[in-house]
Target: Pyrophosphate--fructose 6-phosphate 1-phosphotransferase
Amino acid sequence: MKKRNCFIGQSGGPTTAINASLAGIIAKCIETQEFEHVYGMINGIKGLIEHKYMDLLDIFKTEENINHLKHSPAMYLGSCRYKLPTYQEDPQSYESLFRTFEELEITDFYYIGGNDSMDTVAKLSTYAATIQSPIRFIGIPKTIDNDLMGTDHTPGFGSAAKYVATSMLEIAYDSSIYKLNAVTIVEIMGRNAGWLTAASALARTQYNEAPDLIYLPEVPFNKESFLNDIREVFKKKRSVIIAVSEGIRDENGEFLDSDSKYAKRDAFGHILHSGTGKVLETMVYQEFKCKVRSIELNVLQRCAMHIASQVDLDESFEIGRCAVETSMAGKTGVMMVFNRVNNYPYEISCDSKDVSSIANLEQRIPIHWINEAHNDITQELYDYLFPLIQGEVTISYENGIPQYANINHLKND
Model:
């Protein structure tokens, strides 16, 4: 029987759990005993176009080193911010890629990433169909933003949500020690979807009610309502803690930090927000003349393996395994998804959906999961978030710091 050979790539922004999906694919490929080569693209599809790849079976031979990969954050294979053109725009890239596939006798292609990565899977699978290529193209979701359509949630989100909630709790404890009026604004990633910011509500305990206010990009931001909200909280307590998405917009649809001197765009034209917290900090100080601090979590919420969610890592590993089962079953042009069976007890199942119906779309928080005042979340959203941050991850340490996978191969040209 002819052996299978596959390519695996990672693309977009890093997460705590994306290597768990990579580990799941490798583990399943080994388990089937049908794969001769499991190639990893170095720096995603862009690296593959440049013929940069490695055979992962030369490195990951035991359950121990696969488990070590599962518990290492960021992206073992590296990433790229490259939007694959259509075949009509760049036929050479497609012809070059498929020549490589033919030379290496590739049977399966797995791409782990977010929205733009699913666009790559859709384009490659469509082209494969036009030339009657038998290669199976499978997308595996990942993004801390939780904004991919078609899936209950995305691998990587649960761990980032746990980091946000933990950081918010620690900020609340830090802010509680002084007897003076103060406002702390915590800016959290989320261009158009406020899932991560909503997760800050998970910090609330019997000893802590913060964040006192939560502002999400799904609803318009109103300056006067914002200041009145703070005024109302000040009637009850001296320290106000606010969670805000980086991508909140005013009633005209303009980002609060659009005029910031720091505003810039990435390779896909997305605004790279850097200033929403500062804009609000100035606004609050001018109104209340109290101590005001803004904190931007920024990339810290992406790869914090030390506070990862066990549920997230286990699910991310499992969806990688399911991806292999799906391609071996003959499916192509699909993205793996989670379906939620139940909240309490929490239960999900793996499935797949047509990737072309998912790519380039965004899943945002349903409006009915945001309170009427637009400054908090509902219990329904809390119940959706709560299971995703459960369980603590045990990682190995060396010389007092976490010991992660060797990524020297990313430093070489």
The chain has two domains: 4-156+305-360+392-400, 158-301.
